[in-house]
Write a structure and sequence with these properties.
By secondary structure, the protein is an alpha/beta fold. The protein folds into 2 domains: 228 residues, Malonyl-Coenzyme A Acyl Carrier Protein, domain 2; 62 residues, Malonyl-CoA ACP transacylase, ACP-binding (Alpha-Beta Plaits). The protein has a 6-stranded mixed β-sheet, sandwiched between helices. Strands 4-5-3-6 form a 4-stranded antiparallel β-sheet. Strand 9, helix 12 and strand 10 form a beta-alpha-beta unit. The chain is globular. The protein starts with a strand and ends in a 7-residue tail after the last helix.
């Protein structure tokens, strides 16, 4: 086995009941939920575990997902399993920072709550996102550049899956051009805004003001940033990268390749669903990928990664 990376999913993976079995089984998880609730004023347990209309709203979704990701992370760490690197997709980058231990959890929860609200408010009407399947990033980028209005690549998730973002009419025009260029499918996404486009630059600027008061410690492990798909080891780079990430692209495919170049061959996804598992397998077919979504998933992880270690 080579090196290990902890990875954290982004918005769209949320579902009612996520994290409930961890909450019931581990007192430390309840403390994470309580901590998130106390600094944001949101009943995060109720948000995650009970049927409601808020879980699908960006301003709440991001807080709920990060809470579950951090809670699962703390349980995995308690087993004596550690990572050499971390990475996340969009809001999952905050989970990656939790794995780096470079910020207090309370600050991460405050920031993600503000980030969700800022992103939801930044461009409430007239934005869109669309997944383009089966067309290369270079062709899609060229089409976006030639399209009138504002449209660009939001996510380069894995080979064959790109998401575009921007003004609704421009996104629709670019999607039609992608189909003509050979895309297998173009799927409009049910989102509340044109995330990761320059239309959200103002949201990033507002987040920058909040970040000024947040202390950042030395990173315990390096992480890969979404914006530039490179390894980050210097704490001074964290804040500007988080600001730019809101309106910049999520280069997840390149991020996984950057980790592979550093010798990472084992990935542990923490959170609901197996979205990142799929992206990683398509990007690095030889990689070993685990998902920790339920308490029962811990047994597989322990059997694979805790050999010779004292069990917690």
């Amino acid at each position: 086995m080579g090196k290990i990376a902890f990875v954290f999913p982004g918005q769209g993976t949320q579902k009612v009941g996520m994290g409930k079995d961890f909450y019931d089984a581990f007192p430390a998880v309840k403390k994470v939920f309580d901590r998130a609730g106390s600094v944001t004023g949101v009943d995060v347990a109720k948000l995650c575990f009970e049927e409601n209309d808020q879980l699908g709203q960006t301003e709440y979704t991001q807080l709920a997902l990060l809470t579950v990701e951090v809670a699962i992370l703390r349980v995995v760490e308690s087993l004596g399993i550690s990572a050499d690197y971390s990475a996340g997709l969009s809001l999952g980058e905050y989970g990656a920072l939790a794995a780096c231990s470079c910020m207090e959890e309370e600050d991460l929860f405050r920031l993600i709550r503000a980030r969700g609200m800022l992103m939801q408010e930044a461009y409430p009407v007239g934005g869109a996102m669309c997944a383009v399947l089966g067309l290369d990033a270079e062709t899609i980028a060229s089409i976006c550049e030639k399209t009138e209005g504002i449209v660009s690549i939001a996510n380069d998730n894995c080979p064959g899956q790109i998401v575009i973002t921007g003004q609704q009419e421009s996104v629709e025009q670019a999607a039609a051009a992608c189909k003509e260029a050979g895309a297998k499918r173009c799927l409009p996404l049910k989102v509340s805004g044109p995330f990761h486009s320059k239309l959200l630059t103002g949201a990033g600027e507002k987040l920058a003001g909040m970040l000024e008061t947040v202390p950042v410690r030395n990173l315990q492990i390096p992480y890969v940033c979404n914006l530039e798909a490179r390894i980050v080891e210097d704490k001074e780079e964290v804040k500007p990268l988080l600001v730019g990430q809101i309106s910049g692209p999520v280069r997840f495919r390149e991020s996984i390749l950057a980790l592979a170049d550093r010798g990472v061959d084992t990935f542990v996804e923490m959170g609901p669903g197996k979205t990142l598992n799929g992206f990683i397998r398509k990007t690095c077919p030889e990689a070993v990928v685990y998902n920790v979504e339920k308490v029962e998933d811990l047994e597989v992880l322990k059997a694979a990664l805790c050999a010779g270690k004292e069990q917690a």
